[in-house]
Amino acid sequence: MMNIFPLFFTVIFFLFILRFLSKTSLFHILLNCFRSLEDCFHVYQSFKVPQLNQNFQENLLYRKVFTYLNSLTSLEDSEFTNLFTGSKSNDITLNLDVNQTVHDTFLGARLTWNHQNGLSKTTLVLRLRKKDKRRILRPYLQHILSVADEIEENMKEIRLYMNLESQSQHNGRWRSIPFTHPATMETVVLDTEVKNKVKADLETFLKSKQYYHRLGRVWKRGYLLYGASGTGKSSFVAAMARFLCYDVYDIDLSRVSDDSDLKMLLLQTTSRSLILIEGLDKFLSEKSRAVSLSGIFNFMDGIISCCGEERLMVFTMNDKDQIDDQALMRAGRIDVQIHFPLCDFSTFKILASNYLGVKDHKLFVQVEEGFQNGPSLSPAQIGELMISNRTSPTRALKSVINALQRLNETGPGQPVDERVLSGEGSQTVKEFKKLYGLLRIGSRRKQGPLDLSVAQKEGSRHEA
User: Which helix (H) or strand (E) holds 69?
Assistant: First the structure.
């Protein structure tokens, strides 16, 4: 019985020494030497997971594996790794770095991943013992997909993708950031009936995969949002993306070199995404442009558009009347058209409730009188007046009344007195001019969207 105690203390001491060595670089050196020696007695096989496939489209398996590897606790044991803030300000996330190696285990087998960034492409390389391949490879990949899907479901992070110049193709043409725009279907200012119809159309679209396939049509839908600057088109795009939980691909046509380049950009987008082109009317009105009208047509509904599905294609315009080509507007290219009007009295009341918390006020009668000649200011312009005077709803309403009265008194091309934009104080005038450049604005009595580009140019000359 007495002989057991020395043995017991010997084991405890040995465990203590191992624990001490595990916290020192000596232990890691010995461990690496042992693993290198072990590698000499095994045949290994490698598998590559490139970021882009042979058609230069995103390899979805790459995204899944990358998500999985960033979740491994062994990432913390690497010699180096990247630290980023998470979706919340107090969250810290670890991300795999280029040329970094990460170890994993599955069903008793040891696996190694390496993140390689070559001249032509970025690749994740899996290395495992050849004798373990048949036993674990497929179950391991299914395990990765399952874990990655669960992580993405929990994160539910929408991303905004922006296209790079055509010379930057080696790592793909898109760069992304988290999409944090706060607009929702509830916060955007638009006619309630129109919003409900759009929501119903989007919900129907989400459930229509089999229907589209039965018809032999690509599962996509085209939207045109048109109206003057500041009427809420971009905010509505953000609300649509949040409603669908779709990533947004914002295509800057000035960075597209030709029709083929535009096709390549479309190929590198993913399913379940909203593809956006803003200011299409301005682009088409340019005399010299890199992308042709036929290139736009093929982008909208050509054979290339079938490479991926469950997509929403959204185009915005300031003035739809400038586009004479009916082929651009036909169904299949543009399925739904939504007009974003200038602010009328009913829209004003929504803005007053949202911005000032005022549902009724004695000055509402005068505001309504200001709208008798029709809409003349955008929701963004009125919203800025309210933001600048948000500490005093009365002062904010007086600012709106003065602006509307002055617009009704002046004819087209007549200058607007700065004081009508502020009501009281000069600070509002400075902020309003800075954001919109509205020193000259004429009233528009005919129906249709208002083009503010002339007023903005005149405002810039006046300030200069």
Answer: helix 60-69
